[in-house]
TrEMBL record:
<dbReference type="Pfam" id="PF01408">
    <property type="entry name" value="GFO_IDH_MocA"/>
</dbReference>
<feature type="domain" description="Gfo/Idh/MocA-like oxidoreductase N-terminal">
    <location>
        <begin position="2"/>
        <end position="110"/>
    </location>
</feature>
<dbReference type="InterPro" id="IPR036291">
    <property type="entry name" value="NAD(P)-bd_dom_sf"/>
</dbReference>
<dbReference type="InterPro" id="IPR050463">
    <property type="entry name" value="Gfo/Idh/MocA_oxidrdct_glycsds"/>
</dbReference>
<dbReference type="GO" id="GO:0000166">
    <property type="term" value="F:nucleotide binding"/>
</dbReference>
<protein>
    <submittedName>
        <fullName>L-arabinose 1-dehydrogenase</fullName>
        <ecNumber>1.1.1.46</ecNumber>
    </submittedName>
</protein>
<keyword id="KW-0560">Oxidoreductase</keyword>
<dbReference type="GO" id="GO:0050022">
    <property type="term" value="F:L-arabinose 1-dehydrogenase (NAD+) activity"/>
</dbReference>
<dbReference type="InterPro" id="IPR000683">
    <property type="entry name" value="Gfo/Idh/MocA-like_OxRdtase_N"/>
</dbReference>
Amino acid sequence: MEIALVGIGKIAVDQHVPAIDASPDWKLAATVSRHGTVDGVPAYTDFTAMLQERPEIRVVSLCLPPVPRFAYAAEAIRAGRHVMLEKPPGATLSECHALEALARAHRVSLYATWHSRQAEQVAAARAFLAAAPLKRLEVRWREDVRHWHPGQDWIFEPGGMGVFDPGINALSIVTEILPDPIHLTTAELRFPENRQTPISADMAFFHPQGAEVTAHFDWLAEGAPEWTIEAETEAGYMLLEDGGAKLTIDGAAPEAAPPGLTGEYPRLYAQMAALVQAGGIDMDLAPMRHVADAFTLGRRVSVAPFHW
Ligand code: NAP
């Protein structure tokens, strides 16, 4: 299937282009971006023009930041295209619900991707927790924003989510691996006094069986990042590290999974191909709901200004 990639920035170049190039399902047939291009691929700067001039391209993958993404997604759906959304799937929950309704009305596929759910050991962690009553789960997601998002001012603007931009990846894993639904009970969000989004946050959740569930996000952690989820259960101690790539249970690695597609983005594109073929919609908004709850319920604390 021919696909157009929209918003040729960091994640498009780092992950989407190589995943599409390596996929047997997809051919990158066009890009749309005001500044970015991909060698050898017809480039457009105007999305409407691409949709009109290239009717054979049935699928678009949107790699823009969340705030501008809605208008592009709605236009693509109205033009009868299937749409793949980078995470988070929108700037607000209402936008996401509106896109889903629009996709149903136009009978096209819509995929809210959560790349971290495709990390190597997430499925094994889910399988372990399915049969391991939970006592405590703690998320520690700490990285250096200057290293991972150099100069990306949109993440500090309204809708950019701040530290929840990476934090929502952790929440996408938690909501995938926990068999029980959780919901936020308290949060503290720390906003640099010159910015619109938090630079660190702590969250605590209600768990139906009374387990202690917390998450800690920090964007000012220099050095090696920590992307860890640890769980104490009645069946042992689970440590999921490196953003879901490494798993140990009581210090030992689980049995290797049967060979399959490797890499988060190759798996996302395989899922999108299956979704389009089946005419399906996959719009799980659980990670986004927790972030929205944190902005609704969280205590707001003003901290030192942030400069790049
Ligand atoms: P980015 O490089 O800052 O932006 C991607 C591209 O979007 C830009 O190059 C720009 O292309 C276009 N764009 C930006 N603002 C726009 C606007 N107002 N209107 C139209 N186009 C605009 O961001 P990114 O890091 O790739 O992140 C994009 C999305 O991927 C985010 O939702 C992010 O959470 C997600 N993501 C990022 C990472 C990562 O490591 N960076 C990892 C996983 C997921 P032009 O200027 O050429 O139009």
